[in-house]
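INTERNAL AUDIT FORM
Audit reference: QA-55
Scope: verify that the stored structure record matches its stored sequence.
Auditor: D.O.
Record contents follow.
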Amino acid sequence: MVNFRFHLISLIAVFCALGLGILVGSTVVDQSIVDRLDREIRTARRDTAAVKAENERLADAAVRGEEYARRSAAYTLGDRLAGVPVVVVAEAGVDGRIPNELVAALRGAGAEVPGTIWLEGAWRLDGRDEVEALQAATGAEGTNAAVRAAALDSLASRLAGGATGSARTPVLERLRADGFVRFAGGDGAAFATFPAGRARVVLVTGTDSRLAGTDVLADLARSLSQAGVPVVAAEAYDDHDGVDPVPERGAAVAPIRGDRTLAARVSTVDDADLAPGVVTTVLAVATPSTVGHYGYGTGARAPLPEPPASPAP
């Protein structure tokens, strides 16, 4: 008769054999896995090194391209805007470097540019005080959106120029006093009499604009275009260091590109954060009879305006 001790020893032997088999099998499997992982790691390292080298090459090419565009701007732009008054209007939140570079490039092309008019965050009309101040400054009435649109229409009429002396409305000065606009990049006092004649306008928006999600850009562009003012809307793009969700280039000027009427009247540039985009913006200002959408983001149709046709020999 088989006793319990025999069964116990048998069970222990079975489990020992099973454990030994698993140990031996896992050693063989683990080694093959290790070998395969080593091969994959070596391959990944080679691929990473190749990608890093390619990225460095592309970054170097981009830097050289930026430098070329910056240095060649004087030859490209020449005196295309000699004596032309140009108003630069930027939305709060946009990197101040971009409007400064645009002002410098416009001046380099001969344009009269006193500086930059910044549209402050108060245009969001988040509080009742802002709404009442805007109503007092412009006499506008109605909903917040209606008040803002009417105020931007008054601002557009003032920026269009043409009126002088007592015929010039004080809206710009009122808006500055109430915190809706500020002047930078030049002599603020010059805006009291600028522009003396019909002006062209550059609207600078961007990924970081504090007025994103409002109708400020589209409303101001619409009012200016209806007043017969040549307008170029320039986007200063920032990818936020690739943080998800990465913003889409061209999204800031999408309210214009996506509006059939505005798209036919207002030119847009979606790479004003780059030296080539600055040059493109100035070229777009210098060719007011041609409306185009430039850059390489969503909605762009060409990198820059087509050169004028050469006269027939």
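Auditor finding: record pair retrieved intact. The chain has a mean pLDDT of 85.
Action required: none
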